[in-house]
Amino acid sequence: MTTTQVAVRLPSELLENIDVLVGMSFESRSDVIRQAIEQFLYRHACERDARIYELTPFSDAELALGEDLESWKLTPAW
To answer: Could you give the angle at the alpha carbon of 5 between the alpha carbons of 28 and 26, nearest 5°?
Structure first.
């Protein structure tokens, strides 16, 4: 994966909290910030998808699939 350096200004308190995480279980400040951004972007995408599903309800045919007990027998027992 190629990376690009980005300069960001952070409040001192936030940086102190990041440094605590680095001492506990992360390799570097970059690692903490990168993972935080990845989680934020994932959450944002999930919330966007949820809004789309709210605007596009399931059709009767799609809802009927869940009511077909025979088809559920093929579902693996996890």
So the answer is: 10
- Tokens standing for 17? 């909290």
In the numeric block, the tokens 């996890």 are attached to: 78
pTM given for the model: 0.68
Neighbours of 34 (CB within 10 A): 13
What would the pLDDT profile of 43-61 be if each residue is shown by its tens digit?
999 999 999 989 998 888 8
Counting every residue written for the chain, the total comes to: 78
Banded pLDDT at 23 (limits 50, 70, 90): confident
Q: Which domain holds residue 41?
A: 12-58
Longest dimension (CA), the chain: 59
Residue 22 lies in a domain: yes
Pull the structure tokens for residue 42. Answer: 């994932």
Residue 68 lies in a domain: no
| Total of domains in the chain | 1
